[in-house]
Amino acid sequence: MSHFGQNLRLLREERNISQEELAMRARLGKKTIEKYESGSQIPDTQTILKLSTVLDVPASEMLEKELLENHPQGIDHEIEQLITEIGTKKAKLILRKAKEFSEDDFLRVMQMLYEIKYGSTVE
Known about the structure:
70% of the residues lie in helices and 0% in strands. It is mostly helical and 123 residues long. Helix 1 (3-14) packs across helix 3 (30-38). The chain is elongated.
């Protein structure tokens, strides 16, 4: 995989954008995005500019080798510790449900959990 392809995938995933959505926003085909991310094809300058606009990142950053070095692939230490504490099974269940929530849903759930734990409402 090329540095560009790895960077493109990393930036897309950081923004929670699917390949399909990125392709639609940049007016490209999904297969084209797949080829870029796999490194089997390198986009021309105009396409790099389109992708950088959609991802809201300077085009030069998409081409940098160092981008990957500054974004570790591992899981955050605190998240890893929390998963260990509650167990993988519970963590998967929670995360699968949480990804379906809107921001308002998430805040309501957090309010309910606080009330269950402490027996009062947060004001």
